[in-house]
Amino acid sequence: MKNFFLIIIIFLTSCSTPIGGAKKIEDIKPEETPSIETIEAGLWMQMNNYEEKLKTSGSRVKDKSLEKYLKNILCTLTPDYCKDIRVYVQDMPYFNAFMAPNGMMVVWTGLLLRAQNEAQVAAVIGHEAGHYIKRHSLKAWLDAKSRTDLMAILAIGLAVGGVPSGGDIFNLTQLLQAGFMAKHSRDNEREADKIGLDLLIKGGYDPKEAPKIWENIIKEMELGEVNKPLAFLASHPAPEERIKNLKKQTQSYENIETKKNEKELKQKTSPHLKKWVKDEMRLKNKVEQTEFVIDLVYGDNKNEYLLKFYKGEIYRLRGDIENNFQKAIDLYKESIKLKDDFADVYKELGLLQLKIEKDKKAKKNLQRYLDLAINPKDKSIIESYLN
Amino acid sequence: MALIKKIFLISFFLVLISCKPDEPYILVEPGKVEVNKIYSVSTNKKWSQFQEEEFNFLFWTVDGYTLDRIVFFKPLEEGKSLFDHDSYFTKESDKRPIFNSKMNKFEMKEFFDDCIIWSREFTNFETTNLENYKIGSVEGISFDIKAQNELGLNYRGFAVAGIKDKKFYSVYFIATEMEFYRKYKEEAKKIISSIKIL
Questions:
Q1: Helical H runs in chain A?
Q2: Interface predicted TM-score (ipTM) of this complex, two decimals
Q3: A291 touches chain B (CB under 8 A)
Q4: Residue of chain A whose alpha carbon sits nearest to that of B148
Q5: DSSP for A256-278?
Q6: Exposure of A127 by Cβ count < 10 A (0-12 exposed, 13-18 middle, 19+ buried)?
């Protein structure tokens, strides 16, 4: 086995690159595909295999309308590369997106949950497109090789080969992060930020939204487990630095448009929000951190009743410790004050009141739920608590 | 000659003992069966039962775990989870879904969902049609399952769960939507409806 790895290492370190050293790599041209004898073609081939698996994977969010919407954002930002980059949404409750060298862009649902408008999503898509245009994955590979960073090369080699996981794309996703994203140098990240902002402004989006997404991430990290930065930030420049750079770069442009398209994003994500919010709550991050994310989703005045309801859910799901049930009940009641015909809140309030033996109030609220809900599928269960 | 005979006999004996399967499967014959002294069930078919002490469940299958199975969870005590491994991302055991004996019927389903999602076996996991259900004399719930794994294979199934003496009991059937769900659905329904908690 040792010999096998030794052979791989020797093979990898002896590879010559027809493209040359990392610094000489030129931008990829629209509709360009790498020549078959290059290392880049090998990377593409591996990623094409991965992409084929992702297409039918259970973790891909099969919402053509949402993927088309994200693709349209990409095409608005960079019409020249519209044909070259495919955008997929993967059901992962973390703030992340990544770009493979073959033009496969993957956006995680945790990122879409946190984005407050289309301009913020466009800022991330533009950043990822920047990695593609500048061939950063190939550079990362060659840089690692030039440093004879054997372990890194081996890790990438095995990762793209799918060796550790036996076809498990979920694991492969992790390894992709290690192989292609975490290995981007900070300079490459800064370059992608610069390109991303340039594309954002040319696309007519409000550039002030680009730093906002990072400001929100900083706040979320501060409220949560700061020592464990979110995957997207693991290898990137510090959010503080990129906010400063983005703001500085914005000042160099004139006649900036301010398109945000908040409604457009919400319209596309709304069918999924209930599930994504639930997935976020399942992570059991610190209460304040989860509350902050829920604030981003339902913080507008129109949905404040949902904000209160889901905050109540955060406490209910943590169980009867630290007065959580009472906190949940209070929040449900606040939700009812804001909107008195939202059925779900009466159900949760009633069920929780049953637990703390306030049976009379509980039954009244459960009955109110049955009155308000349209053809409730759980009618028989609720009735079992009423009788 | 005697030595050759001896060698032959020893070799034959070694071949015989090497044929003994080390897989922890046993054959379940049709009839009334006690599952690990926890559940009593009736089956009309033969099933292969997989059981290992370290797991808090055992399962029956005809064609293999990934194609069709009935999973019987051992009774779960307060503060425990159906799966005890760490989450892929967080590596934090304290974030596992935890059973609480005061769970209502909705929370029982929620707990089951959360545990299966935590296990990361499926990338999509959805339960619907929650109904009141009695497992023998125990008031519980039944619900349907729809799932998809990372490779995109669709599954369907159903489950029952209940709380007895502050312990969580659950059994589910799941099979690939293509072929095996249809093939074993009726038999699985009969088996699950015959379950009694011992």
A1: 2-14, 39-56, 64-77, 109-114, 118-133, 136-146, 150-161, 169-176, 186-202, 209-223, 239-250, 262-282, 287-298, 304-317, 324-338, 343-355, 359-372, 379-386
A2: 0.82
A3: no
A4: A58
A5: ---B--HHHHHHHHHHHHHHHHH
A6: buried
The pTM score is 0.84
Q: Which domains does chain A have, with CATH numbers?
A: 2-250 (no CATH), 272-386 (1.25.40.10)
Rounded to whole angstroms, how far apart are CA atoms B180 and A354?
Answer: 41
CA atoms within 13 A on the CB side of A64: 1
Query: Rounded to whole angstroms, what are the CA distances from A363 to A59, A66, A370, A387?
Result: 40, 41, 11, 9
What pLDDT shows up at residue A181? Answer: 44
User: Nearest Cα to B125, choosing from A112, A278, A113?
Assistant: A278
Q: pLDDT digit string (tens) for A223-247?
A: 887 555 455 555 566 778 888 889 9
Q: In the block, which residue shows the tokens 């049953």?
A: A354
Region A322-334 average pLDDT: 95
Q: Is the pLDDT of residue A272 over 50?
A: yes
Nearest CA-CA distance, residue A198 and chain B, Å: 34
Q: Which residues of A touch B100 (CB under 8 A)?
A: 319-320
Residue with tokens 């055991």: B93
The DSSP result for chain B, as a single string, is -HHHHHHHHHHHHHHHHHTS--S-EEEEPSEEEEETTTEEEEESS-EEEEE-TTSSEEEEESS-TTTEEEEEEPPB-TT--S--SPPTTT--GGGS----TT--HHHHHHHHHHHHHHHTS-SEEEEEEEEEEEETTEEEEEEEEEEE-TT--EEEEEEEEEEETTEEEEEEEEEETTTHHHHHHHHHHHHHHT-EE-
B197's tokens: 């908690």
Specify the pLDDT at position B14.
Answer: 57
User: Which tokens belong to A258?
Assistant: 């301010």
Residue of chain A whose Cα is closest to the Cα of B79? A319
Cβ pair B151:A169 closer than 8 A: yes
A58 closest CB neighbour out of B118, B132, B148: B148
Decide if A111 contacts A124 (C-beta within 8 A). Answer: yes
Residues 6+ positions from A72 with CB-CB distance below 8 Å: none
Q: Using alpha carbons only, how large is chain B's radius of gyration in Å?
A: 20
Give chain B's domains with CATH numbers: 72-197 (3.40.1000)
